[in-house]
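Hello Y.,

Per our agreement to keep a running log of every chain we model this quarter, I'm adding this entry. I've kept the format consistent with earlier entries: sequence first, then predicted structure.
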Amino acid sequence: MKVLIHESETRMKKLFSILVILAIIGAVFAAEPIYDASLNVLMGTYGPGDTLTVYGFIDHTTGEGTLPKTSLTLRFYNSMSGPGLSTPITSINYVSDYENPNNLLLDGAFTATKSLSGLTTGDYYVEALINGQVEASAMFSYDSSLNRNSTLTVPSSYITAGNINVGYTISKVNTVEDVIYTVDFYTPTMDGQGTSKQTDTMTVTNTNSSSKLVSFTSAEFSDLANVLVVKVTGTNQTVQDLPQGFARVWLIGQPVSIESSGSMAFNYDNCKAKEGAERICSFTVTNTGDYPASFAVTASSELETSVSFDSSLLQPNTERTGTITLTGVEGDAPVKQLELNLKYGAQVLQSLNGSVTVETRDLLSQISILDFDITPTDIRPGDEVTVSFKVKNTGDFSERVRVQYVLGDEDPVNYGNTYNLLKNQIRSVSVTFNAPEEEVVPFSLNILKEDDVIAGTVTNIYIEPFVFTPFTRWKTEYKYLEQGDTDENVIKVRNDGNTAEYYQVTVESNYASLDKRVYLLAGQSTDITVPILISNTAEVGAFNVEAEVCSLTTYECDTDDFTITVLEKEKENTTIVLNQTLQDLSGDEGAVFEVAVQNFEGATKTYSVSVDAFNGEIQVSPSDLTIMNGEEGVFYLYAKPENKMTQDITYNVMSGKEVVSTGNLTLSYPGLGLTGLITLSEAGSLGAIILGIALIGALVFLGVRSFNQSKVELKYWK
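Predicted structure for the entry above:
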């Protein structure tokens, strides 16, 4: 029994101990603080090379105490894969309580960044976890093909007494048109972005980049406004993918005054002015403070001065170069004083004083023009001309020169940039321009010194006008041709101009003709064959045949002619006028034939006529004829057949023993014919025949025929 009581007491003690432990644990958990969080993503879509930037706000709602800063974690993951394959975001900016730097604030904002690369295209979730519990989430998209056209950066932020200063830059890529941006500044809250503290505008021109500095009074921010959100929208559709904002962490508490410091360097020995000229010298400003600052530089001198310096925000431990332009007049030599002041607002941080050497203006030429080259060598109207040359400074100090060209009486044109030439320096210069299309006047290419005094002329460039000069020549100057001949001659046509051209080639005559168009390059020539045709009835004599070649652009022409001498067609050596002649007979009469002989042997010849065997009586009178060259003689041949039968008489015309021609004569008895003819025997002789012809006075012509330019008259005796 005691044993049972003892076991019961022991169990009660154990149960009590467990209850006490659970009570203690419950008390501990009941005291654990509870936080709410908000989370936002600056852009809806990111691409390769972008930085994911998120911002949020933590609100301590219940409980007491704080959690360690490590209790706040961030992650993101692909919506298709889920949180099991999430990626942590470790770069979290969160301002802790300065008294408890390792704890989360009771209330405060934070930002975080993560460089994105190698993601697959799709939607992603970003989550904020406190003690492993998801307290807030946001969503963004990733496009692996996105090509960013514009960016926003906030490179500087610092605090001065009563103010918070923010510098931002907007840059455009691949866009040249002007774009106006609207820029809003927010402080995040549990409800999201919060109320806009200030709205700004910025115009980015075709320079594609612009920077600005915006200042806020500290009264606009609470102690917990440790994050500033910059949201930007553009007016141009081509820059819609501009990042929508940027977050920045601020120190908690009221802004405190800071001191800005800077230094300026200027080498007086390297800066020299010159009478009647401008000289540009440089100086350097360095921000030696701990915060970004904007500086200004002023100058004062007996010389005319102007300062060029970018007064935008300069980051700590960085430097920027500016220039000062010094303009001297005659009488400023040999030295003038120059003072430079570096300012931060109204405060002068540094002053520099020194003497500037002023050189005397030397009006004598100090520039030598060395060898030059012109392309092309033959310049035509409208050609692109390049002139390359070298200039050398032969003076005692630096010179600034530029190139000038003058076209005829027109105003000079200054070409390109001004070149700085140190003492004895040689510089290569190339100038390209287009020759005028119409006015063909020389170009003068000059080198000017900075006071517009001509230091020298490179060259006078002459423009050769387009020339379309034709040239033509016959290959043969004369030809001898007989009636009925064919031959040819050749025209040589050449382009003596300086540019390609079409030419019209024309030949018009009774013996040769041509109408042809040819295209010839400058200096090119061609041969054209022209046929020559002499008709059988062409007029005998000498005639000119003219060829004309004309430019189809300027109608300038060139002509040449040659002589054709037409000769009478050469006859056969001995031409017989009578041949194959027929006479009809009846009764016992005979027939008288004429055999006309023409001498074209070139010398006087003696001819005779012989007759082959003939059945009947044949007589030829005269027995021979001596005929000069080109003259004609006639033989009379009397024939009386033995029988009244048709017979042919074959005769030969002889020159010595040489037969020079042969012919045929025919005697025919058709049955019905003329009567009362006187025969050779009745007449007694050929002279009697001729006398009988005269006495009777009647001659019957039976026909006229031609052969080899000959003629025959056939006569009957009655």
